[in-house]
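Researcher: Structure prediction, please.
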Amino acid sequence: MCWTLPNTLIGLVAALIGLAFGARMRWQRRELALVVRRWPWGTGGALTLGNVIVHTGEQLDTTCLTYAHRAGHGVEPPVSLADHERAHVYQYMLLGPLFLPLYLVCGGVSARNPFERSADRYAQSGRGWWPWAGHD
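Model: Predicted structure follows.
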């Protein structure tokens, strides 16, 4: 958690801004993150910044479509948003301040980004959160 503290601080600033506009937050041990719910801006979904997860909904433990499904790369069953975001928390904890630059270099928020594909894989199977891990 110390290694990703710079990212978490960005998330905490976002959380404090959201709180001023009605967002709510609480620590969720399973996610190893401070979860900010009812984020007042955006079209839906969630964003992880270190050990902070910001999302627009009431509950993080809801279903969402995978990036591949949304991009039309096939039909996949919905996955848990909480599981998907937990994979990003693990990625942040391993890469620390390197995560955001690597994430952006790898394609940002898109189906081609290996960080997003592996977070979806983890949400589907409970394993494989590391982008360059071997797949079954």
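Model: DSSP finds five helices and six strands in the chain.
Researcher: Thanks, that helps.
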